[in-house]
Specification:
The complex is a heterodimer of chains A (219) and B (246). Chain A is built from ten helices and two strands. With 219 residues, chain A is mostly helical. Chain A has one domain. In chain A, α3 crosses α5 and α4 crosses α5. The relative contact order of chain A is 0.18. Chain B is an alpha+beta fold. Chain B has one domain. In chain B, strands 1-4-5-6-7 form a five-stranded antiparallel beta sheet. The model of chain B has no long low-confidence stretch (mean pLDDT 84). The chains are: A mainly alpha (219), B alpha+beta (246). Chains A and B meet through α4 of A and α1 of B.
Chain lengths: 219, 246
């Protein structure tokens, strides 16, 4: 049996994925997945911010006054996001332009506030960091999957490599235009949700409640 | 975990401390990274003139920032007073931003209504002229232009051949016209029509087809060109340069 700390990381990646099972952070999963590079940068940014916010909120959890804790959590997240946005604009302006408002919108990404409020407020720093890492990886997995499918079938390319030879270059593949449109992300995310939830939706929910109870008690 | 009660005083102090620390962090990050951000902005602005000056570029050609800086440094930039066609030393030509000046009323001149074919009302008194030399021969001259389109300000460049008479390229730097219709002014097919047209009145008159469905946008661009190449725009400067050539 896996230890609790390793389950903290591995669980959210597939079994309790924040996007497909908890249906959080879907907005950006739809918006920045036309090509792979912005999706990867977005994933890294979100994971870093998630870890940062969980660690800080967890470290301050005994100091945060209960009555204003949500606002303070938001403030901490917003600070991290703003700084990350500044760095992206200064070092990778092209990608920052593609991501446009979606970096700023990490502030309102439900995964970040959700984990700060539900996990970091009640757990020590190390488990909080691992929980954040796991949730971040789960989000990243979906983003990279969706972006890979969309880029591959929308352009025949992945990153800088031409995977499918295009008809215009005497190949066989003609790009599926719908993959470049936002609508395709809906279908792909819906497909992934269907795959990951399948028939086992009832047992999963029961287990989720049980496990959040365990996390609170034992760590 | 047991909820702890906080006194109002403590709540306020904790909130103030966290707010202050966050504010300091954001300000520090923003001011430390500002030079880098501004450098990118400057490159972005120069990118458009660099691309405009090279008619052989096709849509989709991407220049790296280094290439932009390299090509931009090859340009000879002259700041002229449009009224007198004289070189002006009122601003540094490298730093003068024509399109920003177009929004600053202090730097502007009111266009007489009879001259104002493109509906600009005001225009900057100073304008940069970008010249590209190969050895000692003048290859091309880039002139920034702008004016109101259907929805937005359309800003771009008209590039002339070294004879100050033939249009070598037209390129748009910024616009907010209807996607899919008005933005056809950016399409290579439409821009190609401009290439080779003569601007001198005594030579063959030029004619550009409007884009069907985007009559307002394309007609607006044609009026901008008429105004900016006319007597109240770069016209006198262009004429004076032709004189010098003779």
């Amino acid at each position: 049996m896996m230890t609790y700390s390793s389950r903290l990381i591995s669980d959210p990646v597939v079994r309790q994925n924040p996007v497909t099972v908890q249906i959080l952070g879907v907005c950006s999963a739809l918006a920045v997945t036309r090509t792979l590079i912005p999706a990867i940068i977005m994933s890294i940014t979100l994971t870093l911010i998630l870890v940062m916010s969980n660690v800080i909120v967890s470290a301050l959890r005994h100091q945060l006054p209960h009555s204003v804790r949500l606002i303070l959590e938001m403030l901490i997240i917003a600070t991290g996001v703003t700084i990350a946005d500044e760095f992206l604009k200064a070092y990778v302006p092209d990608i920052a332009a593609t991501l446009s408002v979606f970096v700023g919108l990490i502030i309102t990404n439900c995964i970040v506030l959700g984990r700060a409020e539900a996990f970091a407020m009640n757990n020590p720093v190390i488990p909080s960091a691992m929980d954040a890492l796991g949730q971040g990886l789960g989000y990243s997995l979906i983003l990279v999957l969706v972006a890979s499918i969309r880029e591959l079938f929308g352009t025949g390319r992945l990153l800088d490599y031409q995977i499918f030879e295009l008809v215009s270059d005497n190949g066989w593949f003609s790009p599926l235009l719908i993959m470049s449109l936002p609508a395709s992300a809906f279908f792909i995310v819906a497909g992934l949700i269907w795959l990951s939830r399948g028939k086992s939706i009832q047992p999963l929910q029961a287990q989720w409640q049980f496990e959040s109870h365990v996390y609170r008690g034992k760590i | 975990m047991a909820e702890r009660k906080f006194s109002t005083k403590r709540t306020i102090i904790v909130t103030l401390v966290i707010t202050t620390v966050c504010a300091i962090l954001v300000v520090a990050a923003s001011s430390l990274l500002k030079p880098r951000r501004l450098a990118w902005l400057a490159i972005e602005m120069n990118r458009s003139i660099v691309i405009a000056m090279e008619p052989s570029f096709v849509a989709g050609d991407v220049l790296t920032p280094t290439e932009v800086v390299e090509r931009f440094s090859q340009l000879d930039i002259l700041l002229i007073d449009l009224k007198t066609s004289e070189r002006s030393s009122a601003a540094d030509p490298l730093l003068y931003n024509f399109f920003t000046a177009a929004e600053n009323l202090e730097l502007q001149y009111k266009i007489p209504p009879s001259m104002d074919v493109a509906g600009l009302v005001h225009r900057p008194t100073l304008a940069p002229v970008y010249r590209l030399y190969e050895g000692v021969t003048l290859q091309r001259v880039g002139l920034p232009i702008y004016g109101p389109g259907m929805w937005s300000r359309i800003a771009g460049y008209i590039v002339l051949e070294g004879d100050y008479n033939t249009i070598a390229n037209i390129y748009f730097y910024q616009h907010g016209e209807t996607p899919g219709i008005g933005d056809q002014i950016e399409s290579p097919e439409w821009r190609k029509q401009w290439v080779g047209k003569k601007i001198r009145k005594d030579t063959d008159a030029y004619q550009i087809d409007a884009i069907s469905g985007a009559t307002v946008t394309s007609a607006a661009v044609i009026l901008h060109a008429q105004y900016w190449l006319g007597d109240d725009g770069y016209g006198p400067y262009i004429a004076s340069q032709r004189e010098e050539d003779r």
